[in-house]
């Protein structure tokens, strides 16, 4: 994926079930070197909290595992923790 993608847009969503189990899904949207639009699910997993810091850490780990460093945009829902999570993610990606 990192060889065919210069930069990407991420869509991140998380939700909780009534048993207080939280899941997160990260989807990458990118145009490859041949100008073909792609959408790939990078991760779908259980998260141990709804805080912005937890979300940012998990997103940064996923990007690192996939060898991806150039994020053009991030789309999230209007959960209040997402504002802090995006700010935290920006700091992690810049370092």
From TrEMBL:
Gene Ontology annotations for the cellular component aspect, listed alphabetically: nucleus
Location(s), subcellular: Nucleus
Predominant subcellular localization, coarse grouping: nucleus
Example of a GO MF term: zinc ion binding
TM stretches of this protein: none
UniProtKB keywords: Metal-binding, Nucleus, Zinc, Zinc-finger
InterPro entries, alphabetized: ZnF_BED_domain_contain
Protein name listed in UniProt: AC transposase
Organism: Cajanus cajan
Lineage, opening ranks: Eukaryota, Viridiplantae, Streptophyta, Embryophyta, Tracheophyta
